[in-house]
Amino acid sequence: EFPHKGLKNGETFMVGNLKMEVLHTPGHTPESISFLLTDTPASPEPVMVFTGDFVFVGDVGRPDHLEKAAGNYGTKEEGAKQMFQSIQRFSKLPDHIQLWPGHGAGSACGKALGAVPSSTIGYEKIRNWAFQYEKDEAGFIDYLLADQPEPPKYFAMMKKLNKVERPLLTEVPTITELTAATLEQELKKGTKLIDTRDKSIFAAGYIPGSINIQNNNAFSTWCGWFLSYDEPFMLVASPDDIEDLTRKLMRIGLDKIAGFIPGVEGWQKAGGQLEKVQYIDLPTFKQAMESNNLQIVDIRGATEYQGGHIPGAEHLFLGTIPQNLNKLSKEKNIVIHCQGGDRASIGYSLLRKNGFTNLKNYTGGINEWLNEGNLLTN
Questions:
Q1: Distance CA 335, CA 289 (A)
Q2: The model's pTM
Q3: CA distances from 71 to 33, 39, 147, 156 (A)
């Protein structure tokens, strides 16, 4: 076991010449803490603060994860109140202090995270919405709790894994490259295959049954929706990307990688067949909308859908597709879409894996729909 010491608000410890002061900053979770850093040889004044999931660039941590993901009902309102109080205390720190949050754009721990890695307290006081509610606790709470995206499915498991003893991964494990024969055997056993290639490359030829989750900032989030912690899975990925992908998966506890293949060429050479994504362009899509034999499925988040959607589109959030296949018709033609195409590629591959052949991907999504002058409905 590693020795450890519990920390409380106001306590300090040294890392070489660097002094770290503990700030209790509840809100995202009750136990949330931040660390105020002082470079003691240079100055007795603090110069940086590491905020974890408390204050981000342009946003603050959401307080509803414990309730929505972990089932601790009634905690989001209390968390929002704690967040307001933490912000009040935090705003009294000097403006020059550099702010280094735990997440950036793409994280589900907030709803409007900025893309730059760091900021200053002074800048956040001006630009971060949370600091504009200095005397309006009710307004702060209402805004904080409104329109939060769906919390990733894996959050509940992460809470559990963080509380139990489990083997430590002290280095990135080496992932085995699979032969086409082994891949075929694993697929027959039901082992899931995640194709991490770009959606356009995936669309041109993919192994039947594979799920296209591209290697980007949202990779581990979507893997957490569709992979089980107690089952092995495989990857289609460039050897240059394997370490990066493995690290991303390890961070959310998904470490049962059974192996990878570098592409689909080996599968083809061994006699394996490929499928191609069936697209629908905008003119054909609009023509199909005139018939009664079409089901349009918007797989974006609920807040996105409520903010405006294509007329006649039904909402089915991407992360819950496997549990809601009964809501999709096998008699009608199905067109799925998202905002710009990435999520639609995941959804398309999931539905093909589950036997839907009456399926088209409108990859242009809401972005193209609006850019071509079409209107949305609420």
A1: 10
A2: 0.80
A3: 22, 41, 19, 8
